[in-house]
Specification:
It contains no helices and 11 strands. Strand 5 and strand 6 form a beta hairpin. The protein is globular, with a radius of gyration of 13 Å.
């Protein structure tokens, strides 16, 4: 079992940056593929980025390519999402999640954090 706690959200102006962190507790973190998802009001939860268990592979949604970077530190049991050039449409609750599969499909993720709010003002 993996317990996930996100942090680092907040209010930022358009064009600014934020770094989200997701701290994990559990024996299986280092073997888990980790994803970031987001959910804006009235919209479905959508995929943002995924990183494989070793950190050697990453994959991004088209709308964040070149702006967001996912990384992980297995020694600290933490995954990060560096978000640059933020836009108002990036406003959402951001969730980290763990999966045994390297996937962009939210239904393949077994464990979820509680989410952290990111608000980008224009």
């Amino acid at each position: 079992q993996v317990q996930l706690v996100e942090s680092g959200g907040g209010l930022v102006q358009a064009g600014g940056s934020l770094r989200l962190s997701c701290a994990a507790c559990g024996r299986t973190f280092s073997s888990s593929n980790m994803g970031w998802f987001r959910q804006a009001p009235g919209k479905e939860r959508e995929f943002v980025a995924v990183i494989n268990w070793s950190g050697g592979s990453t994959y991004y949604a088209d709308f964040v390519k070149g702006r967001f970077t996912i990384s992980r530190d297995n020694a600290k049991s933490t995954v990060y999402l560096q978000m640059n050039s933020l836009k108002s449409e990036d406003t959402a609750v951001y969730y980290c999640a763990a999966s045994p599969r390297y996937s962009a499909n939210r239904y393949e993720y077994d464990y979820w954090g509680q989410g952290t709010q990111v608000t980008v003002s224009s």
